[in-house]
């Protein structure tokens, strides 16, 4: 017979003789018994789940998954601690059908619960990475406020070495970024001031340019007018008519001179 | 060309201008020409005294010829030579005369320029007169609606006041600068002027005045919205808290480093005196206020 067959057979037999199983009976009884037992059973189940998850954390290679699992474990623990006072109240209540010894055992169980809950490893003691250099983790490993019933948020923020590392790296990078941004802002401020001054200077020069413009226009028109007049005068002086008149008069004078000297 | 002997030219020109029996009218035209040549000759020969005289006479000649522009130009040259000779009263007179002549030509810009030149020449020797000249120059420009040009003059006058350690006057001038800037919508210059005024008051260790000034300036919208406003409020709060480190830090900020050089120097030297006095005053005021409340 193979192992699997054996297993199946064992299962069958167990199922058949279930009613003789004391633990299971207790469980079934508990469910139909009273509020305390029900709640207690639920809490036990949660504790088992948390233990199981913490075991997976210690095996888990992926850091992110490990962190997520530890966070879940922590959440479960917090919830359990939250429900502890309810359980205590139920335990103190007198329920009919329960013997005195049972009552006392219930109280004992309830008292034992908180320690069991705290004992669940939630990743703060097991470090997947042993980083010797980051000594800071030892001092603020467990930022635990008084773990009274009110302060259950502290469990959420328990530090692991890894998360410390993350946080420190994050802070360093943020600081460097801030420094860089500061320098950029300084440069930009200087640029802005220079630009504003330039703006004003240019505004100052605009009316000057307008004046220059009009003055130069006037000068150009003056020069054009003068040029035209000059051209007219020159053409008049050099006109061919005057030239012919000059030659004729010259001939006349020569004629008169030759007449006089003849 | 008579570059040979300017003296001869001058005597010749003088003869042309003097009325006598043989001469019934003065010949300013040629005289002026001769005067100019003589003046140039003297200047080249570095005979500043004579050159100055020659320029004066040339200017007069131009005036007689009804060309105030040339007259003013010659006056300016004469004044520059007087500056070389360190004859300060003459410098003032000449520059003023030149500016008047420019105004006759209806050119306020060169008029104020000549006054500014005079003021700059007198800055070291006669600072009060220099300030007077700067003020007059600014007035001329403002009348002509050219306040933008006046900014430099205001700043120069302020620096003279600071040198003379007349801080209230300096601050007043800066506020006038702010007013001029407001008129021509130069918001940046305006805010810088107000911040500079506050710094000057603080340098004079007069916190009350500085705060009053700050309150006045806060009424102005443009200042309220500006970087300079924030810087001023930081500075004043640092003063009231008596925090020397904070004052020094604010003085190093880029807003202040963008102001005029003179003001930057003042700001770097802040705080003058004891800031804790202000702090004590501030707390005393608060306590007094509380007492009043108790009584009522």
From TrEMBL, chain A:
Nucleus in keyword set: no
Keywords recorded for this protein, A-Z: Coiled coil, Membrane, Protein transport, Transmembrane, Transmembrane helix, Transport
Membrane topology note: Single-pass membrane protein
Main localization of the protein described in the UniProt heading: membrane
Any Pfam family hit: SNARE
NAD recorded as keyword: no
Assembly, per entry: Part of the t-SNARE complex.
Protein name: Syntaxin-72
Biological source species: Durio zibethinus
TrEMBL record, chain B:
GO biological-process terms attached to the record: intracellular protein transport; vesicle-mediated transport
Location (main, coarse): membrane
Keywords carried by this UniProt record: ER-Golgi transport, Membrane, Protein transport, Transport
Localization annotation: Membrane
Topology relative to the membrane: Peripheral membrane protein
Cellular component terms (Gene Ontology): SNARE complex; vacuolar membrane
Pfam families: SNAP
Keyword Lipid biosynthesis: no
UniProt-recorded Gene Ontology molecular function terms: soluble NSF attachment protein activity; syntaxin binding
Record-linked InterPro entries: NSF_attach, TPR-like_helical_dom_sf
Family the entry assigns: Belongs to the SNAP family.
Protein name: Gamma-soluble NSF attachment protein
Source organism: Durio zibethinus (Durian)
